[in-house]
Structures
1.
Amino acid sequence: AEQHDTHRTTPVFMAHGEKDDIVLTALTLTAGATLQNAGYEATRKTYPVGHTVSNDGLHDLSLRLKNVLA
């Protein structure tokens, strides 16, 4: 994929379920590290759920969006 410096200023929030049996947690952690190493602001958080969206994950995303859009 093509990389542009302007995209590096867009923060990335990655949430992942620790009990996800469809997408391995390691893949999310590796993807986040790859983005960070390329100069992107990537936040990775895991939650004690499966392949779903948790209330805690939505809460953290909401806080992140409020901070970014403020």
2.
Amino acid sequence: RAWMVPIEGCRCWQAAELSQALPTLSKQIHPCEALEEGLNRLHDSPGTPVIAGSLYLLGQAWSKLEREPD
């Protein structure tokens, strides 16, 4: 599954655009209104979460993630 989140201050793919470009994967692409919503969906899903995209996205996500103790 892919949860598409907006990246503040950057042009980025929208879920509808990506679904149109990749119709065979469209049922796996889900829009999110904000990064927090995407992170919540990742947290609640089974499997190992992966944040992929630009360094801008990673930077915004990093500031919102809590680091787990060693």
3.
Amino acid sequence: AGGQRGYLIHITADMYTVSGVEVLGPFSRRDRWLLPRDRRFVTGKAGDGTVAFLAAIASIGFAWLLLAPA
């Protein structure tokens, strides 16, 4: 169930990018988005690595807080 939830979240996040997602692929080659054209995110830039690093550090911190013995 966790893997399916992660997959769904990933696909949903991709729908916020300028590339969009072929939701009905391979039956339809048409991309779909969740945001208007002027609000979509560009990915593949230098800042992506920084955001990923900070998210990883935050995830480790939260996991430590939740799993650390009292």
